[in-house]
Amino acid sequence: MDDRKLDVLRAIIEDFVATQEPVGSKSLAERHNLGVSPATVRNDMASLEEEGYITQPHTSAGRVPTDLGYRLFVDRISAVKPLSGAERRAIQTFLEGAVDLDDVVRRSVRLLAQLTRHVAVVQYPSLERSAVRHVELVALQGSRLLLVFITDTGRVEQRLVDVGTAHTADEVGELRDVFNAVLDGAMLTDVPTLLSDLPDQVRPELRPSLVNVIAVALEALVDKREERVMLAGTANLTRAAALDFPGTLRPVLEALEEQVVLLKLLGEAHDPSTMVVRIGQENELEQLHSTSVVSIGYGSGDTALASLGVLGPTRMDYPGTMTAVRAVARYVGRTLDVNGPS
Description:
alpha+beta; 43% helix; 5-stranded antiparallel beta sheet; disordered C terminus; 18% strand
C-alpha cells in the first residue's frame, strides 16, 4: 500500500475511534491535512474498500475499518503515543506503594483498566518460572507444621502438614535448615530432583516427618499447574456496547468469566520486549471476535515471569493502548525485580 492510502486509512481509523461514527470522504478531507483533493480521497476510500480494509455498514453511510484495516494500521504504526512525565510518575508512585505480590497485581490491573478504559488482565508470575527464595517451617499445635514457600517473584505458598508427632523447636529448625540449604535459589522445576535425596540428610528419627513435609511441598509447588489471573474494568465494555457489540455483549462477558480463557488471551505474550495484538477474528474464541487483545510479558530483563494486557472493542486507540500496556509491564517488572517484593 502506498503512503497516501495508508494516511487515508489512518485518518479513517482515528476519526472512527474518536467519533464512534462511520467516516465520510468530505469530513475526512476537512478534518485532516491529507494534501490531496476530496475527489482523490474518495478514490482512495473506494480502493481501500475494494481491498477489504474498510467497509460501508449502511447504504449512503460513511466507512468503518475492518479487522484487516486495523491489522494493517497496527503493523504500520511507526510510533506509539508517549506517556507524559506526569503519567510516568503516577504509574511509578502507584506501583511502588505495593506491599506484596497480591498488592502489585491488584494495583497493576486497576491501573491498566484506568489508563486504557478497557478490561485489564494481569497474570500472576508463573510458579514454573520462579525460584525458591526462602522456606519457612513453623510448629503449630500438636503434630502440625506450617510450611511456607516464598519465591523470588513474590509468590507465597502455604500448606499445613500433619507429621504425626510433635517436634521441639530445635527439631523444626533442623528440618527448616535442611530445606533451605538444598532449595535456596533453586528453580521450582528442579525441586523434585533436589528433594529426592533429602531424607538421608537428617537424623533417622526426623525422616518420617521430613517425608511428609516433602510430599506436601511437591503437591504445593510441582503439581500445582493452574495459574492465577486478576481482572478489572469489565464495566468499561458497556461504554459504547450498542456500537462495539451490536448483537449482544453477553458472549464476551461469559468468556471473561472463564479462567482458561483469560490465560489463553495472554498465552502468546512471552517476551517483555514484544507486544502481541490480536484483532477481531484473529482471536481463537468466537465469542471474542468483536474484541481486540493487546498483551505483553513482564519480568526482569529479557525473562518474562508472566503476562498482562487488555481486552476491548476492535474500535480502540491502539497507539495509546499499546503505550499504556508496555509502560505498566515495565514498571511491574521493575517492582518485582531484585528478589521480588517484600
